[in-house]
Amino acid sequence: MEYADFNQQLIEFLNASTSPWHAVASMKQELDSAGFEALDEKEEWNLESGKGYYVIRNGSSIVAFRTGRRPTDEAGIRMVGAHTDSPCLKVKPNPELRRKGYLQLGVEVYGGVLLNPWFDRDLSLAGRVSYLDGDGAVKDALVDFRRAIAAIPSLAIHLDREANSSRTVNPQTDMPPVLMQVPEGDTTQFADLLKKQIETEHSGVHVKKVLGYEVGFYDSQPAALVGFCEDFIASARLDNLLSCFVGLRALLDASGDEPALLVCNDHEEVGSMSAEGAQGPFLASVLDRWCGAGRGRSLARSMMISADNAHGVHPNYIEKHDENHGPLLNQGPVIKVNHNQRYASNSRSAAIYRHISDELELPYQTFVVRSDMGCGSTIGPLTAANLGVTTLDIGVPQLAMHSIRETAGAKDGVTLYQVLRAFMQRKMLF
Question: What is the pTM of this model?
Fold first, then answer.
């Protein structure tokens, strides 16, 4: 796939996937178009050889797989994992704040948000709303305002002369976005705004009462190629929707001859401990129903590649990296290594990735955190521990991780896609 075509599709996916629920909806649309069959966890499954299937949990996590033309206990399963969630500001249950004629919304910080870049951005809002319809049934609807409806204005430097040297951000008092101006005595409720948005977005739907919601603010500026020579792609949620997109395209474009699977979990940014997170039973349940009594033999022949973006070297902060392990943008995906098991890579799983890359004449890099700094983690170690499957941690290098707008190389996503596609249709893994 050409870089221009790939990145245009990636940009469209990023712009459409403004929450974990919207990301899964975007992937579902692609899978439906490719002829994959939806499965319901509440029903029996009758899986056929050589077919594609997917199952969704909570609307925010998805497992998609091709059964291949050989049984899993003979062929093993080529697995790729990513996550659908990104750090953001989520609206609290009773969010209304009325101050000096402004209506603001109280927010909770979700994940390890880099807070300063959220100031002075054009913010929109997206997520899932649960409601009571006109027939008395509890239903869910996705909402996305798709326009700038709020902002978090900075305090002027004249009122904080130390802003450039010592300002800290208090998430409780400094981060409530300004939604609108309201008259004295205003009784506007956030639930009423959601009700109106549902009925606007979803023709024919009548909302009797909003019963709950999981919605978060996001930067309304669309993804774009940036740089004098368009060397980079800048967007919200590159961590980790870029990996979701790459894994999806690899699964769809692979031959389908070998058993292959993509799992995109929610809640990675907050520890993955949920029914649909990587510490939960979702993937294991799917594998049980697919592989049956042969699951143990299948996993012994399988491999998981956990794809989650990596820290590229920032040219203004090169001292933050180990001098021999500083990944550069557009120089290839990054094999993540941590002998304290914050990453699941081992010499064997890394060798498989390097071998496929060498065969395709594609670049790769290696990341090890500085020995005097802490190391982040991914769904890789969780999946490896839960399933007992050989696992590799890999990621496209990026800058400004967990910012409201992140930057990655325009070439690295395509490189990772090419390797993952080859991995998913490779006859032998071990």
Answer: 0.96
